[in-house]
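User: Please predict the structure of the protein below. I'd like the answer in structure-token form so I can feed it into my own downstream comparison script.

Assistant: Understood. Taking the following sequence of 152 residues as input:
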Amino acid sequence: MGKKTKKPQAPAWYQDIVDRNMPRRPLLRNCLWAFIGGGALCALAEAASQILQQQGLDKESAQSVVLISVIALTALFTGLGLYDKAGQFFGAGLAVPISGFANSVAAAMLEHKSEGFVLGSGCNSFKLAGAVVVFGIASAFVVAVVMLICGG
């Protein structure tokens, strides 16, 4: 194995100049837009669920239809380039688990489409899913052990 090389660091005086001239991020505004975007997405999903229930679907079926619809629309909007633009504006508000996960899977598929349908898009679409499954199982195991120790 080769030697590990250290990454060169900027001199302290240079870093001071960078810190002084770096534009400040509008944290409060970003938080507000994330809240509005995520809230709007969740409110629309809840409204759709309520409408489906009024049309005769039971609560569980209505929620399933809404989740599938959110996943499909997120993938479609990712493919059209609209989800990324909305994500830049609303920030973390649109990264709620179901739409954020669908976006990352669809984006990975688009990124590797030049390698072919199966070996490109198909194989690379679930790279993130592997990490989610591994860390999900690991964290569930830790929680189970803690609950077992605590008598829960």
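That's the full token string. The longest helix spans residues 27-54.
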